[in-house]
Amino acid sequence: MPRLPRDFYNRDTVTVAHELLGKILVHQIDGLARMARIVEVEAYLGPGDLAAHSARGLTPRTRAMFGPPGHAYVYLIYGMHHCLNVVTEPEGSGTGVLLRAVEPIANIEGNTRGPGLLTRAMGIDKRHYGHDLCSDELHLLAPLHETQEIEIVASPRIGVPYAQEWADKPLRFHILGNRYVSRK
DNA sequence: TTGGCGATTTTC
DNA sequence: AAAATCGCCAAA
């Protein structure tokens, strides 16, 4: 299967979010490839998006989100869970896509239905902050052909009621009918 | 230096 | 419905 090139990520964030659905996340640990299919994501559109961390501006924490596309923005939430984002658009944009749920394919143990759960199951944590997603260790693959056409459902993002008019925008996307989506 | 809080998950 | 748990960041 072809690995997604950096150019894939250097595009409009909503476009990338849509196209990430059905792609395969790969993390190599001790020669073992943990693989899972992305079934749910959320788009964060930069400093103007009040739900995005980058709305706070360039800080030590958001540095990776303002970095070049095709890298990982990992953060710790509620003091106990890691979340993985894919950085999109040209360097400095502060945009990215949160991976919220994946479907296990190979070498995966445990629940993957939720942003904190999928990072745990994939073995991803702060060590991967700013990590290159075009690397041998951590990258994404495009299936040669979809087993079936993917239907995308849009809905408001989870857990951002404070973001005022941005709270209700339909920037969460998931694969219609997939059982590994984090919520009904 | 300090205090409030969060792109969550689990349990009561 | 509420706890668990800690790094980030704005304010002082």
TrEMBL record:
Gene3D superfamilies: Methylpurine-DNA glycosylase (MPG). It is an enzyme of class 3 (hydrolase). Keywords: DNA damage, DNA repair, Hydrolase. Its EC number is 3.2.2.-. The keyword DNA repair applies. The keyword DNA damage applies. CDD domains: AAG. HAMAP family: 3MGH. Belongs to the DNA glycosylase MPG family. This is Putative 3-methyladenine DNA glycosylase. It comes from Mesopusillimonas faecipullorum.
